[in-house]
Each structure stands twice: as C-alpha cells, then as structure tokens.
Design a protein that fits this description.
57 residues; mainly alpha; 2 helices; 84% helix; 0% strand; elongated
Length: 57
C-alpha cells in the first residue's frame, strides 16, 4: 500500500470517528469513558496521518 493510500484510509477512519464522537455527544446515555476512548483514537489517527504526510514525497 502506498503512503498516499494509507493516508486516505486513515483519513476515512478519522472522519468516521469524528461522526461517532458527534453522535455520542448528542446522546445523553453516552459513557464518558467511551467518549474519551473515541477521542483518543481520533487523536492517534491524526498523529499517524501527520507523520505519514511528512514522509510523503
């Protein structure tokens, strides 16, 4: 898989998590630990995307 393809894949996962976080914040029954985990996963994806973008030609 090329770096560009990996960046696109991670970007899609990042957007999916962003949607999940948005929906979770609107739901009163959302567990705060679950929301925190979603946000941490989103941040890790963002960091990985940034690292890959620095390596891309």
């Amino acid at each position: 898989m090329t770096i560009e393809a990996r960046i696109r894949e991670l970007g899609n996962r990042h957007r999916t998590l962003d949607e999940a976080i948005h929906q979770a914040t609107r739901s009163p029954s959302t567990d705060s630990l679950q929301l925190r985990e979603l946000k941490q996963r989103k941040l890790r994806l963002k960091e990985e995307i940034s690292q890959l973008e620095m390596r891309a030609p």
